[in-house]
Amino acid sequence: MQLLNVSHLKKYFKDIKAVDDISFTIEKGEILGLLGPNGAGKSTTISMLSTLIKPDDGVITYKGKDIVKSPQAIQGSLGYVPQEIALYPNLTGRENLEFWGRAYGLKGKKLNKQMKKVSGIIGITDRLKDKVSQYSGGMQRRLNIGAALLHEPELIIMDEPTVGIDPQSRKHILDTVLELNKEGMTVIYTSHYMEEVEYICNKVCIMDNGKIIANGTKKDLVNLIDDKKRILIKVDNVNDVLLKDIGNIQEVTDVSSEENTVIVTVSNGKATFKRIIEVLNNTEIGIRSIDINEPNLETVFLHLTGKALRD
User: Fold this and answer.
1) Helices (H), 72-124
2) How does pLDDT run across 171-202, given as a tens digit for each residue?
3) Are 195 and 167 in contact (CB under 8 A)?
4) Phi, then psi, of 294 in degrees rounded to 5
5) Integer angstrom CA distances of residue 57 from 21, 23, 46, 208
6) Are 200 and 33 in contact (CB under 8 A)?
7) Residue 188: enclosing H or E segment and its boundaries?
8) End-to-end CA distance of the chain, in Å?
9) Which domains does the chain have, with CATH numbers?
10) What's the predicted TM-score (pTM) here?
């Protein structure tokens, strides 16, 4: 079942095309990853999906209803986790949940039941009596998510929910997203962390400079460059002559270096590998290790944009 449809969406800020004519759909039960570097247009996109700002052009429908014209069509079914912490630091965790629960129209036994359920999901039951100012960054992020779950939304939008937290809290949040999805919740998840999207998302939109440059399942995207592999060669030292000689090999589509590692993208793995070894032997540069990487989302992004995700 198609839950959300985005068609030719645009949002400009003066001369900046923050979102430049994008279209995609989300099916019920999917985890859609909006992947891209800072400034790609991800946050602006979800701000429009959340009815926080209006697009300059385009249509967004939720279950067939136009939410640009009638934002109430989605608001009651939507949970939104903003990139910035939306909590009151001088209130306790419980007081924050109670505040946001009442904002969603919950009260009495229903509110208490949902606060208990949500605090268990996000793993902070034993800290509810503490002020949020005493929480770690990871715990604040988890409570931020909990506030968006109180009214049991059908769709939850999470904007970079793991920014600036420790690995343990990040893993907890990612596993929470997967568990919520298993229970039937549809998720839109924005990130500039490739490994997060690889871990939780079954469908991906790659954004860059306000546009969607690729859209599909992870398998679909990897198949775009299925014939390409990356070879990582750690050597004693890298010089321009070595890079030029490797780049001159016919099947090499890209060659670069980071410190003492040569990064080679090839279109014919086995045949090219032999030629690369011949070049290295001829230059008498010591080889420390060689790794051959199969295509992944990072390779796709590099192939489509010509740059690494965090450039």
Assistant:
1) 72-75, 93-103, 108-122
2) 999 999 999 999 999 999 998 888 898 899 99
3) no
4) -70, 155
5) 8, 12, 15, 19
6) yes
7) strand 186-191
8) 37
9) 2-223 (3.40.50.300), 229-294 (3.30.70.100)
10) 0.78
